[in-house]
Design brief:
Length: 148
């Protein structure tokens, strides 16, 4: 039973870590929503986090059990951070230092509304993982009380 509770806590911790990475990338996108120059050249390109399901390293009891069932507890991890390949926005601003001959400036492909929705989603997912971890902690404490 302790393995199950620890697995629940490990899964929640993995989820919180993944959502924290997602929040960091969203914050970076929002901060660079008007950046027309980057070290790579050209405007900032929106970034996205890619998640992957991953097996949580269980204890002996879970390994023994999962060897019969063919599966173990799953968590999540960040596998990569990719660039969004949507085209850049073009804005007419002939006085801008990065304007082309037509007076058009290539702006980042960041949509602030989309980023705010993504931020809310990541925050809610993080909160759900915190709630799950707290529930597992309470169950663990109750189990210890019963053993006294």
């Amino acid at each position: 039973m302790a393995d199950t509770l620890f697995n629940a806590m490990n899964i929640s911790a993995a989820g919180m870590s993944a959502q924290r990475s997602r929040l960091d990338i969203v914050a970076e996108n929002i901060a660079n929503a008007e950046s027309t120059r980057t070290e790579q050249g050209g405007p900032y390109r929106r970034r996205q986090v890619v998640f992957k399901s991953t097996e949580i390293k269980p204890g002996f009891d879970s390994v023994f059990q999962s060897s019969f069932e063919g599966k173990g507890p799953k968590g999540v991890k960040v596998t990569s951070i990719i660039d969004d390949q949507r085209p850049f926005r073009e804005v007419y601003n002939p006085g801008h230092p990065d304007a082309d001959a037509r007076g058009m400036v290539k702006m980042p492909n960041v949509n602030s509304v989309e980023e705010m929705v993504d931020m809310q989603s990541a925050a809610r997912s993080f909160e759900a993982n915190v709630t799950t971890m707290e529930a597992a902690k309470r169950m663990f404490q109750k189990s210890l009380e019963l053993l006294r």
